[in-house]
Amino acid sequence: MEVLIPVLLALGLFCGGVWAINRFGAGQPKAPPLHVTEDNGWTVIVATPAPLPKRLTAISVVFATGLAVVVWVAFMIRQAKPVGATLAAMGVWLTLGIVIRRLWQTYHDHRRQVVHQPLSVCSRGIRLGATMVPRDRIYAIVRRNAQDGRVVVVTGHGVAAGVSQMTAGTLALLTQISHTVEVEHDGTRTVLAGGLTDAQAHAVAAELTKRLPGFH
Which of 13, 22, 29, 139 could be disulfide-bonded to 57 (CB atoms 3.0-4.6 Å)? Predict the structure, then answer.
């Protein structure tokens, strides 16, 4: 019993830390996949980007754990008190875990072409942030995938092959949440919403086209 209590406490702290790394590292508040409201003649469409695979949180935890162990060993070499060394290592682990997870989020949000500007539409056209695209300049509403065309070659043996396979698996998961909705206008293309599932992209495109004359 004397051993079980510290083990359960350590396990609880670890699980809580992993939750915090995923929650604050992702930086995405919980929201419905699609929210549509009306505002002074405009339809406001908010599509919440799909969350990244949990394995990216796991990778962040592994990296942070390795660095935290280094910090703990460094403190112990300097003959610090075990409690102080452990608290310092835990602080480093949690902070680095959140930072690494946030870096993953930023990188993949860029790759998935996540848009943070508000999107709205009416019969006169589409508005993205402060940019207005009039209806008569819109040629098409297009759905694409930001990850299509990326290739991962799985080769080698042992660790190298394992890493390649994990990368390929992660890319396959990311492809499922990297759909975009774009508008073609004036000889160019503008991403209206990104980082979506196929169902989200379909819904956003449907909400847009049914409110633009000539597109439904």
Answer: 22
